[in-house]
Amino acid sequence: MDAPAVEEQEEVTAPVQVGDTCERTVRFTRDDIAMFAQLTGDTNPLHHDVQAAQRARHGEIIASGQQTTAQMMGLAASFFSRQDDMARELLCLNFNFAFKAPVFAEQELVLHWRVATVEWNASLGGWLAHVDGKATVRNAHPCVVGRGTLLVKTGEH
Questions:
Q1: Between 106 and 7, whose confidence is greater?
Q2: What fold, for 6-154?
Q3: What is the DSSP string of the chain?
Q4: Which of 27, 31, 91, 151 has its CA 20 to 30 A from that of 73?
C-alpha cells in the first residue's frame, strides 16, 4: 500500500484526532469478579473468597487487574473502530498498564481514554494514535492508568 504524498497527507482527514476522548462507566459485582477470575484461570482467593479477602490488606473482594484492563481495552477498541461518518479499521498494537489502587465490588468505575498524539505511518498504511487512559472510582484517584498505541485505518488508505 503506497503512502499518500506529503501534500495529500495534509488533505486527508485522519480517522482519529489529538484530544479525542471516550468514556464508559462499569460496575463489577462480587459474582462478576469471581466469574471473570475463574474464566481467566486466576485462582487468587482475593477475587472469590470473602474470608481470605477480609484477612488480606484490602479487606474485601477485589477485581483482578486483567478484568479492569480488559474493559479498558474493549472501550478503546469499540470507540476507535466505530462506524459513523467514516469507516475505520483498528488494530491495538500495544497497551501498558500500572495498577495504583484496588477495584472493589460494586464501585462505580469510570474508564477513560484520550488521544495524546497522532501520526501517519507509511509502512503500516495507517494512523498511529497514542492514547492515555485511566480507570477511576468516581471522585477518587485512578485505580489503573494506561498507555496504548493503536493503528487506525480508513477505507481511503
A1: 106
A2: Thiol Ester Dehydrase; Chain A (3.10.129)
A3: -PPPPHHHHHHSPPSS-TT-EEEEEE---HHHHHHHHHHTT---GGGT-HHHHHHSSS-S-B--HHHHHHHHHHHHHHHHT--SSS-EEEEEEEEEEEE-S--BTT--EEEEEEEEEEEEETTTTEEEEEEEEEEEETTS-EEEEEEEEEEEEETT-
A4: 31
